[in-house]
Each structure stands twice: as C-alpha cells, then as structure tokens.
Write a structure and sequence with these properties.
With 445 residues, this protein is α+β, with helices and mostly antiparallel strands. It has three domains: 2-110, Alpha-Beta Plaits (2-Layer Sandwich); 149-255, Chitinase A, domain 3 (Roll); 280-443, Trigger factor, C-terminal domain (Trigger factor, domain 2, Orthogonal Bundle), CATH 1.10.3120.10. The protein is 45% helix and 20% strand. The protein contains twelve helices and eleven strands. Strands 6, 7, 8, 9 and 10 form a five-stranded antiparallel beta sheet that branches. It has a four-stranded antiparallel beta sheet with strand order 1-2-4-3, covered by helices on one side. A hairpin with a 7-residue loop joins β3 and β4. The longest helix is centred in the middle third of the chain and has 36 residues, at 273-308. It starts with a strand and ends with a helix.
C-alpha cells in the first residue's frame, strides 16, 4: 500500500491512495457468495445460481463497492496515523480502471484550520442592568388585565356600569359595523362586509377607516374616501382610491378586571392575594430581565469573537451547516402546516451568511474551550438544569425530563459552555455597565 498527501491550498488537501486489487480477492469471493444466496434468476432455485452468472451480473458492482470501501478505510487509517484533523468527509475519486491490478484513488478533503485568537483586552462590550419596580409590575398587570377584557354596549346599564354618558365610538372601543366600498362607482372584491368587528386603536384597519369610525354612535352612518397604499396586499386596489360607507351596528366599551384577590385567583394565585400575585409577577419580570441581559451580552461577545479571531473556514463545514439550516426551515414550514412543505424549494444560498458565521463561531469556541479549559462540568450542567426546572410546578419531574434524553443534556451542556466562554471573555475585555429601563431593554437587539 502507498499513500501520498498533497497540499492544494490553505485547507484543501489531496491524498493519493494505492493498493493491490489482489488484496480484495478473499473479500470479493465472500461478497459474491453472499449475493448468490439471495440472487433470483429464471430457471434456477434461489441460492443455486451458478458462480459464472453471479459474476457476470454482479462482479463489477462488487468490485466497485469493495474498492471504494478499501480506499475509505485506508484514508481514515492514514489520517489517524498522520494526526490529520479532518473538517469533513473526503471525496473519493478512482483514478484506475476497475479491473486494474493496482488500484489508485484520489481523496480530496479539508483540514480544520488554525484559529488565531485575538487580544480580548482590546474589546469593549456593554452589560445592561435593569431594575424592576412598581411601575413595571403595574404595566405587566395591565397586560394581564387586557387578556381578560370583555365588552359591554355603551349606554346600557349593567353590573359593571354603562361606560359613561358619551355613547359615541372612542379609542379602545369594540365596534361592529357594516361597510361597502366602491372604486369609480363599482363595488370591488373584499370591499363589503356585514357585522364586521374590530377594536379602535389596535391598528387592524387602515388609519382613514378608524378615523371615520371614531365619534359615531350605534345606528349612524358615514361616507369617506380611502386611498390604498401602493404596497397594499390587495393588488387589485393597491394605489387606488375608494369611496366607503360605514354603518355602525354597535359600540362596546372595554371592561378590565380590577386588580384584586379575585383577579389574582384567576391567574392561579391561590394564596396570598394581590401581594403574592405582584411578587410572582416581579419574579417573572426579573427572570425575563436576566434572560434578556444574558442574550444581549452573548450576542455582543460572539460578534467580538468573530471579529477578533482569524481563521480560514472549511467550505465543507459551511455546506453541511447550510443543509442543516435548510432542513430546519423545512421542518418549521411543516409544523406550521404549509401545503407541500416537503417539496417547497429552499435555496441553500439563503443561509450562506448565517452558516458561515455559525461555523466560524463553532471553531473559535472549540479552540477557546480546549486552550482555556472551559468545558462544561457536571456540576455546572446540574446547576443550570435546576435553575430552569425551578420555574415549573414540579421541578423534580423537569430534572428527570432533561436527564432522560442525551440531546437535551447536550443542549444544556452547550449553553453552559457558552456561558463559560462569555465569562472568560468579559474577564479580559472592558465591560461597561449600562442602566436601562425595562421598556428600553425590551427594544434592544
């Protein structure tokens, strides 16, 4: 056997493999015998086909398979012997005839790159801080109240009142209307509806439509012009002006539940009433703040790592990552019930930039973990699982759920590993604390 390795570029290599066809004789005979046991041919019972006929029908295929298998085996043996860090699978190309006494293959492959770690002390990153107070808790409770909103007709007395003396449509009211639209005096598709319901101020309708409805009372009508935007989703009316007439059928004011013990109970707070509810809301907000701050810091650190480290990226790894991203996108379409999602063409080029960044970061993280001993420990993994499980009603069951599946454990391990890298990076870089409000934190990318 002979092996020769040639450098074709920064990461590209070619390994020429040579071995004798005679070395495959015993394996060839055994393979043909195995094929013959199940081979079917007219005029012969199964397993009784003559050797010459088995050879004639399957000999070339067996030679092809055995030679490729032998070349692959020799390639990996030599790669291990030479200590070659492979970036992916080789591409094997036969260079000799199938019946040649000396079999020659070229194996084209890529090696993992050298990662040059930059000077982290020159980097600057921001670490945000946010305090959760009564105002933030109140806003969160308002959101929860709106999720339980219900509506009453304006002017009709009820258990929650009549909505006030003004019975005209106001911002936040739910209105039920009939409408008809015409362009050049002709009704158009989608321009007419009866008992159409929406809430003023939610932005569901075009601004002109909402403006015309404001101030009307049940039973009143109004006509107005509406110019559809040029990029309106309805292509037949996009860029055109229509004349609409609306008739209000009903105007309903919004009643929000009071922040009391009954409201707390509706949210699952069985003991402690409002005080306990506010405490739980604060815990949830604090948890969201921590998650958001960690995510922002992680994204900034990863971007800095990407820019501070130098390496050549193996094309094969990028291509594999693109395939994974395409498959992930396809699975997402299938889960959303998109018709023919299995056959929808998804160009891999759409994910080229994302795949390149992921591969770069993966190689950088791998190098840092190896050089700085940043691998996740069993204690760190357990602590992360315990912290996540604590947010559920039955933490022990959640812990068992994580430990029962290797892929879930791997996800936690990767999360801890990233945290270790972030801690290491920020221990060297210049970190600036920035205090922001909860609303500002929510808008940061």
């Amino acid at each position: 056997m002979a092996v020769q390795i040639e450098n074709l570029g920064s990461l590209d290599r070619k390994m020429t493999l040579e071995f004798a066809r005679a070395d495959l004789a015993k394996a060839r005979e055994a393979r043909l015998a195995k094929v013959g046991k199940t081979m079917k041919m007219a005029g012969f019972r199964p397993g009784k086909v003559p050797k010459n006929l088995i050879e004639k029908q399957h000999g070339m295929q067996v030679d092809f398979e055995l030679q490729f298998d032998k070349a692959a085996e020799l390639f990996y043996e030599q790669s291990q012997k030479e200590g070659i860090a492979l970036a992916g699978q080789p591409r094997l190309e036969p260079k000799s005839e199938l019946n040649a006494d000396k079999v020659i293959f070229d194996a084209f492959f890529e090696v993992l790159p050298e990662v040059k770690i930059g000077d982290f002390s020159s980097a600057e990153v921001s670490k945000y801080t946010t305090e959760i107070g009564d105002a933030e808790i109140d806003r969160a409770l308002d959101v929860l109240r709106k999720q339980q909103v219900h509506y009453h007709p304006r002017g009709q007395a009820g258990a929650h009142g009549d909505g006030g003396a003004n019975t005209s449509a106001q911002a936040g009211d739910q209105v039920v209307i009939d409408f008809v639209g015409k362009i050049d005096g002709v009704e158009f598709a989608g321009g007419k509806a009866e008992n159409f319901e929406y809430v003023l101020g939610e932005g569901r309708m075009l601004p002109e439509f909402e403006a015309a409805t404001l101030g009307l009372k049940a039973g009143e009508s109004k006509s107005f012009s509406l110019s559809f935007p040029a990029d309106y989703h309805g292509k037949d009316v996009a860029g055109k002006t229509a004349e609409f007439t609306i008739t209000v059928k009903s105007v309903n004011w919004a009643h929000l539940p009071a922040v009391d013990d009954a409201f707390a109970l509706s949210l699952g707070v069985t003991e402690g009433g409002v005080a306990k509810m506010r405490a739980e809301v604060k815990e949830n907000l604090d948890r969201e703040v921590k998650r958001r701050i960690t995510s922002l810091l992680k994204n900034e650190v990863m971007d800095k790592l990407n820019s501070l480290c130098e390496l050549d990226v193996p094309k094969s790894l990028v291509a594999s990552e693109q395939e994974r991203l395409v498959e992930g996108a396809r699975q997402d379409l299938m889960q959303r019930g998109i018709p023919n999602a299995k056959d929808v063409p998804i160009p891999a080029e759409l994910f080229a930039e994302q795949a390149l960044k992921r591969v770069r970061l993966g190689l950088i993280l791998s190098e840092l973990v190896k050089k700085q001993n940043l691998a996740a420990t069993a204690d760190q993994i357990k602590a992360e699982i315990d912290e996540q499980a604590a947010t559920y009603e039955d933490p022990k069951e959640v812990v068992r759920w994580f430990y029962s599946n290797p892929s879930r454990l791997k996800d936690i391990e990767n999360l801890v590993l990233e945290d270790n890298v972030i801690k290491y990076f920020t221990s060297l870089a210049k970190v600036t604390d920035k205090a922001v409000s909860f609303e500002e934190l929510s808008k940061l990318n």
